[in-house]
UniProtKB/TrEMBL annotation:
GO biological process, one term: protein ubiquitination
Protein name, as recorded: DCA17 factor
CC per GO annotation: Cul4-RING E3 ubiquitin ligase complex
Pfam families named among the record's database cross-references: DCAF17
Length: 523
């Protein structure tokens, strides 16, 4: 606080908002992060120059899935790691092929938190947390693949942990089991299965066990289909489209029977063992004995439910099939529909449009259709400060200038021909948006648009100003793009990476690096 007052006096600024604005623009060279912000600003300018190109520097193919995490490409079920940061991708490590029993089911990248003292020097370097098919949770060095820590998860209660996710990114991690299902013979014998899922909760760096709990039909109801935990909220989804939210932290505090530490010897329900060691695993030490207080519930088609914006709003689709593609934006406070809060692009397409809160934390909303991207914002209704309305911030339109879709045409001889069908909005022969993403460090909105003529599809990655939507750069992708395949495109500062999944589990990876094209080079 004293340093802030000194800075105010030194520059003659007496308004905190003005000071923060000047700091964000790098007026004070001694502020942490100024050099980094300046460098990113320079990178953005260089990248958007006309002379700057993105060159395909590396291509590989694999019979197993390919994953990308912060400058690292993982292949062969995470046994092979390749850096994409170098001028040309190079091998970081290659481990021997693992047995089927050691197959990795899921993984999360773990990065060191800033400003914290950690118990081990290895904690200050990036690591990968992986979940194996045999219920081992491993922390691997991102630089060598060496096992730094290992925890056995499944005791007598659960045998099938399959999913990793963040409750609080880089702080609290959730390990979720597959849904428990009884064998057909057991069901025919009339045996009832009440436990649907198990959730194990960990604090990371240092890795510590918080607790394990079960999601039980007797507590949450018979029609539960899935659960998730995000930002301290337990989200329970039901077969009829209902979504219910509970305070996850309060559940842990209220129903924790006994806390345990990893490596601690325990005697629990007649079992003696060590927490996190084979064969005992983790105790189920959070027993929910009564339905927790309900925070919020909503009914939405296919359980689609999102929260965001300021003040808080949520997005749902009315729970009827005829409303698919219609989105309602409502106030979380009182469920009031915002003015202009029904968003419907009226698309006639095979693939539905999609909508989500902008990941830049601006509170805006991105609505993506086949040929139109709308960035929407929440604002107060004039003369009604307690009511919000949805307004258009900007739009991005696909290039369909050469597209002619007349239902009636006239031949050279003068004969009138009427078409019996109308092209879909996402017809492959028309430019169609397939991917929209946000690069937070460069503050750019990226879009992938595809046009397919015959068997040959062409895609280009465009960079738009995140504030106004202005097109700043367009990068053609050299490889053919088949719209029937699964695709992922990552834009990470000066890198573009395209992962493609073809039929019969064939995967391809294409890496593009930024090059400043001083000579006349079409590459």
């Amino acid at each position: 606080a004293g340093g802030g007052r000194t800075a105010l006096r030194a520059c003659g600024v007496h308004n905190v908002c003005r000071l923060l604005s000047r700091r964000a623009h790098g007026f004070y060279a001694r502020d942490a992060g100024v050099a980094h912000r300046k460098n990113l600003g320079l990178l953005r300018k260089i990248m958007c120059q006309e002379s700057t190109k993105f060159k395909n520097v590396w291509t590989t193919h694999s019979a197993s899935p390919i994953a990308y995490e912060r400058g690292r490409i993982y292949m062969d079920n995470y046994q092979c790691c390749i850096t994409s940061i170098a001028q040309q991708p190079r091998l970081i490590y290659q481990k021997s092929k693992c047995a089927k029993s050691e197959k990795i089911e899921d993984a999360l990248l773990l990065e060191c938190p800033l400003g914290e003292m950690l118990p081990s020097p290895s904690d200050y370097k990036a690591s990968l947390i992986v979940l194996t098919v045999q219920n081992w949770l491993l922390r691997l060095s991102a630089d060598s693949g060496e096992v730094l820590e290992k925890v056995y998860l499944a005791g007598s209660c659960c045998k099938f942990f399959r999913y990793l996710s963040w409750d609080t990114p880089q702080e609290v991690m959730i390990v979720k089991s597959a849904q428990n299902k009884l064998p057909a013979a057991a069901r025919q014998a009339g045996i009832q299965q009440t436990v649907l899922f198990y959730l194990a909760v960990f604090q990371v760096l240092p890795l510590s066990f918080i607790g394990m709990l079960e999601i039980n039909k007797k507590i949450f109801g018979n029609s539960v289909t899935d659960v998730a935990v995000s930002n301290g909220i337990l989200i329970v989804m039901y077969s009829m489209g209902l979504v219910r939210l509970y305070n996850f932290k309060a559940i842990l505090e209220q129903f924790m029977e006994q806390p345990f530490d990893l490596g601690q010897e325990f005697n629990w329900n007649g079992q003696v063992g060590v927490v996190g060691k084979y064969p005992f695993g983790l105790p189920c030490n959070v027993k929910i004995t009564d339905t927790p207080p309900l925070l919020f519930e909503a009914s939405s088609l296919e359980n689609a439910f999102q929260i965001g914006g300021y003040p808080w709003h949520y997005i749902i689709t009315p729970n009827k099939k005829k409303h698919k593609g219609v989105f309602h934006i409502c106030s979380l406070k009182d469920n009031t529909l915002a003015k202009n809060g029904i968003q419907d692009m009226k698309c006639c397409s095979l693939e539905p449009d999609w909508i989500y809160f902008h990941p830049d934390m601006s509170g805006r909303i991105i609505h993506v259709g086949p040929n139109l991207i709308k960035v929407l914002k929440l604002k107060e209704v004039k003369n009604h400060a307690d009511q919000m309305e949805i307004a258009e911030d900007f739009t991005i339109v696909a290039n369909r200038e050469n597209c002619v879709n007349n239902s009636v045409t006239v031949t050279a001889s003068g004969r009138v021909v009427k078409k019996r069908f109308t092209l879909l909005d996402d017809d492959p022969e028309q430019e169609t948006f397939k991917i929209v993403d946000y690069e937070d460090e460069l503050d750019l909105l990226s879009t992938v648009a595809v046009t397919q003529i015959g068997a040959d599809g062409r895609a280009h990655l465009d960079f738009h100003c995140n504030e106004h939507g202005i097109l700043l750069k367009s990068i053609p992708l050299k490889e053919s793009w088949d719209v029937t395949y699964s695709h992922e495109v990552y834009f990470d500062k000066d890198l573009v990476l395209h992962i493609e999944q073809k039929p019969n589990r064939r995967f391809s990876c294409y890496v593009y690096q930024m090059v400043c094209d001083t000579a006349k080079d079409d590459d």
